[in-house]
Write a structure and sequence with these properties.
By secondary structure, the protein is of the alpha+beta class. 24% of the residues lie in helices and 23% in strands. It has six helices and ten strands, in the order ααβαββααβββαββββ. α4 crosses α5. The chain is globular and about 50 Å long. It starts with 8 loop residues before the first helix and ends with a strand.
């Protein structure tokens, strides 16, 4: 059985804040990429050009060039203190794949809320929200993104888990929208029915020519080296998600 990861994003963010001057290393431009799936598609070529232009590695953060016709949502800080119950569902989903799990294996029920309250007390900003039509149905969705800075340790001799997951909330922010969160959760274990785990994967959201897409950078080789160091671009529509492009870093 695959061991489950404890979702402890607030504490990770705090540690990075304290050690920022030591740990964050200026990273060179990501380099060159080849399109391995979606050759000949305009979208895929635009995404490749966008990666080449970036000055920070896509495992850490992704920018989307307006000169290429790309744009990112307007991410704003999300107040965790006002939505403790909803965030408890998010943490459970990311840890177990089930927002209503009785999760005594990862950590006790009371610990979820305790850790959320601790992050609020420390003033750590680790959740951001944007309204975006994530599934292209003509209606705006409440999307949360939880960026990690641990990726700055990649290739520096450290072995710490990091990720940047995205989830979709109910319109009133009262809890997780499981149906739409499952659409955007395209992690490595999804085929095994183990949604939520996005360790060593970084999700982003962008629009191009009036459509919304999301992408996932994968730093792991768990599905073979062909899938390692890849960016996969997805489009959700009509209750389904399909892969539109996959690009691989080739100059490592």
């Amino acid at each position: 059985m695959r061991s489950r990861r404890v979702v402890d994003l607030p504490y990770i963010a705090l540690c990075i804040g304290v050690l920022l001057g030591i740990l964050i290393v200026g990273m060179a431009r990501a380099g060159e990429y080849e399109i391995v799936d979606g050759k000949g598609q305009e979208l895929c070529e635009v995404c490749r050009q966008n990666l080449v232009q970036m000055t920070e590695h896509p495992a850490c953060e992704r920018t989307y060039s307006s000169t290429l016709g790309l744009s990112a949502p307007d991410w704003k800080p999300f107040d965790v203190s006002e939505h403790l119950g909803a965030m408890k569902q998010v943490m459970k989903y990311l840890a177990t794949g089930n927002e209503f799990a009785k999760d005594d294996y990862v950590m006790g029920e009371e610990q979820y809320e305790a850790r959320l309250r601790a992050s609020v007390a420390m003033g750590v900003q680790w959740v951001y929200r944007a309204q975006v039509d994530i599934d292209n149905d003509g209606q705006s969705d409440q999307v949360l993104r939880m960026p990690s800075k641990e990726c700055n340790r990649r290739n520096q001799g450290y072995n710490l888990a990091y990720d940047t997951p995205i989830v979709v909330m109910k319109n009133d922010l009262s809890g997780l929208n499981r149906t739409k969160s499952d659409l955007v959760e395209q992690g490595l274990y999804k085929k095994l029915g183990q949604r939520g785990d996005s360790t060593y994967q970084m999700y982003g959201v962008f629009t191009y020519k009036g459509k919304t897409y999301f992408d996932r950078w994968n730093d792991t080789g768990i599905q073979g080296e062909s899938q390692r160091y890849t960016l996969t671009v997805y489009e959700s529509r009509g209750g389904e998600t399909r892969k539109r492009c996959q690009l691989k870093e080739v100059d490592r």
